[in-house]
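for the recovery benchmark. tokens below, seq after
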């Protein structure tokens, strides 16, 4: 059976932290689907099309990584794509507590069919988040050290 992981997020924008998790997860799975969740209640800085293009361009050298979009529950999307794993990155203890609650809920509602796999972000990238990047961009700071090269075009 093919090991398929879904790495969900808004990726507004993709950061070097996201990139780090994906690169390190590639050898662990047969396929990784970077799944951009759409939430009508959220105001995104970048369009869905732009975010998808950046992710595709930054991961073009990884043939086992696919980029897709979805709405609704991540576990429902996983079932639709026959994914047995949800991949999540952890930067700090607060991330762990938040992600642990979601993982337990997902495990319960899928009758244990989908397992969440956590990877720690590399120490040099553990401070990076999309919200920090957006704030740096809004304030005209040097965001380029926080994102893949393809995003450095603003």
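predicted aa per position
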């Amino acid at each position: 059976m093919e090991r398929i992981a879904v790495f969900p997020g808004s990726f507004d924008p993709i950061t070097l932290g996201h990139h780090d998790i994906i690169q390190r997860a590639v050898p662990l799975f047969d396929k990784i689907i970077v799944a951009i969740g759409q939430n009508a209640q959220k105001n995104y800085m970048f369009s869905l099309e732009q975010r998808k293009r950046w992710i595709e361009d930054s991961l073009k050298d990884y043939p086992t990584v696919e980029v897709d979009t979805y709405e609704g529950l991540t576990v429902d999307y996983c079932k639709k794509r026959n994914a047995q794993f949800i991949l999540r990155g952890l930067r700090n203890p607060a991330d762990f507590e938040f992600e642990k609650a979601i993982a337990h809920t997902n495990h319960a509602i899928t009758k244990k069919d989908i397992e969440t796999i956590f990877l720690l972000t590399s120490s040099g990238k553990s401070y990076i988040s999309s919200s920090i990047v957006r704030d740096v961009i809004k304030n005209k700071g040097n965001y380029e050290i926080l994102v893949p090269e393809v995003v450095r075009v603003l």
